[in-house]
Write a structure and sequence with these properties.
About 75% of the residues lie in helices and about 0% in strands. With about 240 residues, it is an all-alpha fold.
Length: about 240
Protein backbone atom coordinates (compact mmCIF):
# COMPACT_ATOMS: atom_id res chain seq x y z
CA UNK A 1 0.00 0.00 0.00
CA UNK A 2 2.80 2.40 0.92
CA UNK A 3 4.61 1.83 -2.37
CA UNK A 4 1.43 2.43 -4.40
CA UNK A 5 0.66 5.52 -2.32
CA UNK A 6 4.12 6.91 -2.90
CA UNK A 7 3.83 6.33 -6.66
CA UNK A 8 0.47 8.12 -6.77
CA UNK A 9 1.90 11.07 -4.87
CA UNK A 10 4.84 11.37 -7.25
CA UNK A 11 2.69 11.17 -10.37
CA UNK A 12 0.16 13.62 -8.93
CA UNK A 13 2.73 16.28 -8.00
CA UNK A 14 4.80 15.84 -11.14
CA UNK A 15 1.65 16.17 -13.25
CA UNK A 16 0.62 19.38 -11.51
CA UNK A 17 4.10 20.81 -11.97
CA UNK A 18 4.10 19.95 -15.67
CA UNK A 19 0.65 21.50 -16.08
CA UNK A 20 1.82 24.73 -14.46
CA UNK A 21 4.85 24.79 -16.75
CA UNK A 22 2.61 24.51 -19.81
CA UNK A 23 0.47 27.41 -18.58
CA UNK A 24 3.55 29.60 -18.13
CA UNK A 25 4.90 28.50 -21.49
CA UNK A 26 1.91 29.79 -23.49
CA UNK A 27 2.21 33.58 -22.93
CA UNK A 28 6.00 33.37 -23.14
CA UNK A 29 5.89 31.69 -26.55
CA UNK A 30 3.45 34.31 -27.81
CA UNK A 31 5.95 37.05 -27.05
CA UNK A 32 5.18 38.82 -30.33
CA UNK A 33 1.62 39.53 -29.21
CA UNK A 34 0.67 42.96 -27.89
CA UNK A 35 0.60 43.78 -24.19
CA UNK A 36 -3.23 43.74 -23.75
CA UNK A 37 -3.38 40.20 -25.18
CA UNK A 38 -0.60 39.01 -22.88
CA UNK A 39 -2.29 40.51 -19.84
CA UNK A 40 -5.68 39.00 -20.69
CA UNK A 41 -4.15 35.58 -21.28
CA UNK A 42 -2.19 35.83 -18.03
CA UNK A 43 -5.32 36.71 -16.09
CA UNK A 44 -7.22 33.79 -17.62
CA UNK A 45 -4.37 31.38 -16.97
CA UNK A 46 -4.05 32.64 -13.39
CA UNK A 47 -7.70 31.79 -12.77
CA UNK A 48 -7.22 28.32 -14.24
CA UNK A 49 -4.07 27.70 -12.19
CA UNK A 50 -5.72 28.72 -8.91
CA UNK A 51 -8.78 26.60 -9.69
CA UNK A 52 -6.50 23.65 -10.49
CA UNK A 53 -4.62 24.16 -7.22
CA UNK A 54 -7.88 24.21 -5.26
CA UNK A 55 -9.20 21.10 -7.01
CA UNK A 56 -5.88 19.39 -6.38
CA UNK A 57 -6.15 20.10 -2.66
CA UNK A 58 -9.75 18.83 -2.70
CA UNK A 59 -8.65 15.65 -4.46
CA UNK A 60 -5.67 15.08 -2.19
CA UNK A 61 -7.13 16.02 1.18
CA UNK A 62 -10.80 15.05 0.88
CA UNK A 63 -12.27 13.04 -1.99
CA UNK A 64 -9.30 10.66 -2.47
CA UNK A 65 -7.43 11.13 0.76
CA UNK A 66 -6.84 7.41 1.16
CA UNK A 67 -4.65 7.36 -1.96
CA UNK A 68 -2.19 9.77 -0.37
CA UNK A 69 -2.00 8.21 3.08
CA UNK A 70 1.50 6.83 3.46
CA UNK A 71 3.22 4.98 6.21
CA UNK A 72 3.30 6.44 9.71
CA UNK A 73 6.82 7.79 10.32
CA UNK A 74 6.10 9.37 13.69
CA UNK A 75 8.78 8.74 16.28
CA UNK A 76 7.71 6.76 19.38
CA UNK A 77 8.32 9.71 21.74
CA UNK A 78 7.03 12.36 19.33
CA UNK A 79 3.68 13.96 20.13
CA UNK A 80 1.49 15.54 17.49
CA UNK A 81 0.90 19.27 17.79
CA UNK A 82 -2.64 20.55 18.37
CA UNK A 83 -4.14 22.01 15.20
CA UNK A 84 -4.54 25.49 16.72
CA UNK A 85 -0.90 25.62 17.83
CA UNK A 86 0.29 24.41 14.43
CA UNK A 87 -1.76 27.09 12.61
CA UNK A 88 -0.56 29.87 14.90
CA UNK A 89 3.06 28.77 14.50
CA UNK A 90 2.65 28.61 10.73
CA UNK A 91 1.17 32.13 10.61
CA UNK A 92 3.92 33.63 12.78
CA UNK A 93 6.68 31.93 10.81
CA UNK A 94 5.12 33.06 7.52
CA UNK A 95 5.12 36.70 8.63
CA UNK A 96 8.72 36.49 9.84
CA UNK A 97 9.86 34.84 6.62
CA UNK A 98 8.12 37.54 4.57
CA UNK A 99 9.89 40.29 6.52
CA UNK A 100 13.29 38.62 6.24
CA UNK A 101 12.73 37.98 2.53
CA UNK A 102 11.98 41.66 1.91
CA UNK A 103 15.25 42.73 3.55
CA UNK A 104 17.15 39.98 1.78
CA UNK A 105 15.85 40.88 -1.69
CA UNK A 106 16.85 44.51 -1.28
CA UNK A 107 20.34 43.49 -0.14
CA UNK A 108 20.70 41.02 -3.01
CA UNK A 109 19.71 43.62 -5.58
CA UNK A 110 22.43 45.96 -4.40
CA UNK A 111 25.02 43.18 -4.30
CA UNK A 112 24.03 41.93 -7.76
CA UNK A 113 24.47 45.42 -9.23
CA UNK A 114 27.88 45.76 -7.61
CA UNK A 115 29.05 42.33 -8.79
CA UNK A 116 27.54 42.62 -12.27
CA UNK A 117 25.28 39.58 -11.86
CA UNK A 118 22.31 39.12 -14.14
CA UNK A 119 18.83 39.38 -12.59
CA UNK A 120 18.12 35.90 -13.96
CA UNK A 121 21.00 34.39 -11.97
CA UNK A 122 19.96 36.23 -8.82
CA UNK A 123 16.32 35.20 -9.13
CA UNK A 124 16.77 31.60 -10.25
CA UNK A 125 19.80 30.67 -8.14
CA UNK A 126 20.56 32.95 -5.18
CA UNK A 127 17.05 33.98 -4.11
CA UNK A 128 15.72 30.48 -4.78
CA UNK A 129 18.44 28.85 -2.68
CA UNK A 130 18.02 31.17 0.30
CA UNK A 131 14.23 31.33 0.07
CA UNK A 132 13.90 27.56 -0.04
CA UNK A 133 16.59 26.80 2.55
CA UNK A 134 14.12 25.55 5.17
CA UNK A 135 12.30 23.29 2.71
CA UNK A 136 15.57 21.94 1.33
CA UNK A 137 16.78 21.17 4.84
CA UNK A 138 13.55 19.27 5.56
CA UNK A 139 13.77 17.35 2.29
CA UNK A 140 17.42 16.42 2.91
CA UNK A 141 16.62 15.36 6.47
CA UNK A 142 13.81 13.12 5.23
CA UNK A 143 16.05 11.64 2.54
CA UNK A 144 18.76 10.83 5.11
CA UNK A 145 16.14 8.90 7.08
CA UNK A 146 15.19 6.92 3.94
CA UNK A 147 11.79 8.62 3.73
CA UNK A 148 11.84 9.19 -0.01
CA UNK A 149 8.09 9.78 -0.23
CA UNK A 150 8.29 12.70 2.21
CA UNK A 151 11.43 14.13 0.61
CA UNK A 152 9.94 14.07 -2.90
CA UNK A 153 6.64 15.45 -1.58
CA UNK A 154 8.39 18.42 0.01
CA UNK A 155 10.47 19.21 -3.08
CA UNK A 156 7.72 18.86 -5.67
CA UNK A 157 4.99 20.22 -3.40
CA UNK A 158 6.88 23.47 -2.87
CA UNK A 159 7.36 23.98 -6.62
CA UNK A 160 3.69 23.18 -7.30
CA UNK A 161 2.55 25.66 -4.67
CA UNK A 162 4.65 28.47 -6.17
CA UNK A 163 3.58 27.73 -9.75
CA UNK A 164 -0.12 27.06 -9.18
CA UNK A 165 -0.91 29.46 -6.35
CA UNK A 166 1.73 32.08 -5.54
CA UNK A 167 2.44 33.20 -9.11
CA UNK A 168 -1.26 33.60 -10.09
CA UNK A 169 -2.02 35.44 -6.84
CA UNK A 170 0.82 37.86 -7.57
CA UNK A 171 -0.70 38.54 -10.98
CA UNK A 172 -3.99 39.55 -9.36
CA UNK A 173 -2.33 41.59 -6.60
CA UNK A 174 -0.29 43.50 -9.15
CA UNK A 175 -3.52 45.14 -10.35
CA UNK A 176 -4.20 46.36 -6.80
CA UNK A 177 -0.89 47.19 -5.16
CA UNK A 178 1.67 46.92 -7.96
CA UNK A 179 3.14 49.82 -9.91
CA UNK A 180 2.16 48.00 -13.12
CA UNK A 181 0.12 44.90 -14.02
CA UNK A 182 2.15 41.69 -13.90
CA UNK A 183 1.81 38.94 -16.50
CA UNK A 184 3.05 35.38 -16.90
CA UNK A 185 5.34 36.15 -19.81
CA UNK A 186 8.92 35.20 -18.99
CA UNK A 187 12.20 35.11 -20.83
CA UNK A 188 12.08 32.12 -23.19
CA UNK A 189 15.32 30.69 -21.86
CA UNK A 190 13.86 30.65 -18.37
CA UNK A 191 10.72 28.91 -19.61
CA UNK A 192 12.84 26.29 -21.37
CA UNK A 193 14.72 25.66 -18.13
CA UNK A 194 11.45 25.30 -16.21
CA UNK A 195 10.17 22.81 -18.77
CA UNK A 196 13.41 20.82 -18.61
CA UNK A 197 13.32 20.90 -14.80
CA UNK A 198 9.73 19.61 -14.72
CA UNK A 199 10.57 16.78 -17.11
CA UNK A 200 13.71 15.94 -15.12
CA UNK A 201 11.75 15.79 -11.88
CA UNK A 202 9.22 13.43 -13.46
CA UNK A 203 11.97 11.27 -14.96
CA UNK A 204 13.87 10.94 -11.69
CA UNK A 205 10.94 10.37 -9.33
CA UNK A 206 8.83 7.99 -11.42
CA UNK A 207 10.90 4.81 -10.79
CA UNK A 208 10.34 5.08 -7.03
CA UNK A 209 13.95 4.14 -6.25
CA UNK A 210 17.05 6.23 -5.77
CA UNK A 211 20.83 5.88 -5.99
CA UNK A 212 23.75 8.22 -5.54
CA UNK A 213 24.19 8.75 -9.27
CA UNK A 214 20.67 10.18 -9.55
CA UNK A 215 21.83 12.87 -7.17
CA UNK A 216 24.84 13.52 -9.40
CA UNK A 217 22.51 13.70 -12.41
CA UNK A 218 20.32 16.30 -10.72
CA UNK A 219 23.30 18.36 -9.57
CA UNK A 220 24.77 18.41 -13.08
CA UNK A 221 21.46 19.63 -14.54
CA UNK A 222 21.30 22.32 -11.86
CA UNK A 223 24.92 23.38 -12.46
CA UNK A 224 24.23 23.65 -16.21
CA UNK A 225 21.42 26.08 -15.46
CA UNK A 226 23.50 28.00 -12.91
CA UNK A 227 26.50 28.35 -15.22
CA UNK A 228 24.31 29.54 -18.10
CA UNK A 229 22.55 32.13 -15.97
CA UNK A 230 25.80 33.30 -14.39
CA UNK A 231 27.42 33.93 -17.77
CA UNK A 232 24.43 35.88 -19.10
CA UNK A 233 24.99 39.61 -19.54
CA UNK A 234 23.41 41.67 -16.72
CA UNK A 235 20.74 43.12 -19.04
CA UNK A 236 18.92 39.74 -19.34
Amino acid sequence: MCRNTTAITRVFLAGLLFLATIAILIPSVAAEADAPFTQRVSLGLSVLLIVTYGLGLLFELKTHRELFTGADHTEPDEEAWPLSLALITLAVVTVLVALVSEVFVESVQQAATALGLSPAFVGFIIVALVGGAAEMASALSAARKDRLDLSVGIALGSAVQIALFVAPVLVFLSYVIGPAPMDLQFWRGAVAMMLIAAMTASLVTNPGRSAWFLGVFLLIVYLIFAMTLYLLPPRI
